[in-house]
Amino acid sequence: MTDTRKPTAIDAIAETWVETMIDLDPDTAIWLGLPGRIGEIGDLSPVGHERYITEAKKVLAALDAATPVDEVDEVTKTDISYQLGLDVQSSEAKLFERDLNVIASPAQGVREIFDLMPTATENDWSVIAKRLGNVPGAIDGYIETLRKGIADGVVPARRQVVEVAQQARKHGDPLGFFFDFTGAAALEGGAEVPASLASDLRLGAEASADAYARLAEFLETELAPAASEHDAVGRELYQLHSKHFLGAEIDLDETYEWGREELQRMVDEQTRIAGEIKAGASVEEAIEHLEKDPSRKLHGTDALQKWMQETSDRAVAELSRDHFDIPDPVKALECMIAPTQEGGIYYTGPSDDFSRAGRMWWSVPEGVTEFDTWRELTTVYHEGVPGHHLQIGQAVYNRATLNTWRRQLGGTSGHAEGWALYAERLMEELGYLEDPADRLGMLDGQRMRAARVVLDIGVHLGKPNLEGTGTWDADYALQFMRKNVNMNDSFIRFEVNRYLGWPGQAPSYKVGQRIWEQIRDGAQKRDGAAFSFKEFHKKALDLGGVGLDTLKSVLLK
Are 210 and 136 in contact (CB under 8 A)? Predict the structure, then answer.
């Protein structure tokens, strides 16, 4: 760890903003593992949103008046100002009134935060019971916001409404998450919770399930009839979303054409690797060959979780020895099977004091019981080390230099996901994907990410489809992804619905990787023989979370 840096006035603004966020949204305290009113839930009504924007504007004014004293300050001021400025623009565009999609909206967030709440003690479960009792109020506030959107003519696409209503119905079911979660309540060591607490948890589960049933009813009867028939958001809103996810402004048309070229490059590279797996085989034939190989199969989620953990532990041990200086607290990474069956794979960072380790979550779709190690190896590197966990864990650890915002809350999807894709390629460079099957799996993921650039921009900007038979739409997008992704069809359907409802996020992976690689190439060109991969990566990760324009300005100056 470096010498402790003396906090500055700009650090104080950042820390005060973190405290404000914790006050406005207790979920932030849970994410960070910090004290807060974690039995409560933030105000999801229009009033709650307006309060957030009012506080954000105060921070923007304070930063504008503050003078940086060093490079850390300059980065902090630039990045918080950029992020909050976009938040204000998004509010003016009333995006919060249509904040509903299949993966990352309040409809999921209210439930998902329970996955991170501690469950070891009686007090932990008491806090959970209190939060369960507050779910109805949070859902009612969210419904009020969406209802305001109906009145203002600012509504999500009907496809998203229908899909989220189905998710809400599952959570409202007597056999759904809330009853499973509370029914399995136990103290550390396996002791039962007291009967009175068990009763409170049961009542909380009932209240939460009823709230989600009420949300489903609202979505089906009020929002769906008013929702938009169009999945596309258009160029203006798409550019705003893209800037939010990248921390940079890109030429959307140039990026679309680059995505097409990158996709073809991935197809060509896959085709070459397929021939190494089976002489003369196409990509499809090579995949068919691999899927028949029992040595590359995992059966059941228990086997998947065990393999994920063993693979992750091995990568941490070897990379910390030879390629990265990984602090001991960052070496802990827990691989988990998520309690939902939505189809996503995601990472959650460690608490600020590392009492909760970073976690890799796999939300396995219903009915999926077999997994291919050749296909999923690179996913472990992407979510773990040297991917998300190394990047985020290193930032959290670097408290001697960085304020809490920079360690825990700053950054963009393009910065984080771009690094994770960069890390996949780095593992190939380091010799961890020498097996052609594992390289094919990595390329399958890279091909999917390139395809998403083309699909996402194509759909939301209404570009002509690649066959020249019309414009990009949902049906063509699904057909396109089936052609370019060799995965379970339920996963593909979920992914396409995700892109349609979360504009600009999916391309941030591959576009972020592109920018990371451009920055590294620029640093190599500048430094020549003196360039060090290890030093470059350390300097980049020591910055914590930043936007990609900021990353470029710091690493290439």
Answer: yes
Angle CA 339–345–351, to nearest 5: 75
Mean pLDDT of 183-187: 94
Distance CA 96, CA 314 (A): 43
CA distance 304 to 326: 26
Give the other-Cβ count within 10 Å of 71's Cβ.
11
Question: Cα–chain-centroid distance for residue 461?
Answer: 23
Burial class (CB in 10 A: 0-12, 13-18, 19+), 184: exposed
Strand, coil or helix: what is 173? coil
pTM of the model: 0.89
Phi-psi region of 357 (alpha: psi -120 to 50; beta: other; left: phi over 0): beta
Q: Write out pLDDT tens, residues 338-348.
A: 887 777 788 99
Q: Where are the domains of the chain?
A: 9-230, 242-509
What's the token pair of residue 301? Answer: 């989620």
Measured between alpha carbons, how far is 537 from 235 in angstroms, rounded to an integer? Answer: 35
Using CA atoms, how far apart are residues 150 and 221, in angstroms rounded to an integer? Answer: 12
Place of tokens 């959107």: 149
30 alpha carbon, distance to own chain's centre: 17
Q: Among 361, 375, 362, 202, which residue's Cα sits nearest to residue 286?
A: 375
* pLDDT at residue 2 is higher than 80: no
Here the tokens at position 448 are 């999917």
Tokens 């980065």: give the residue.
Answer: 75
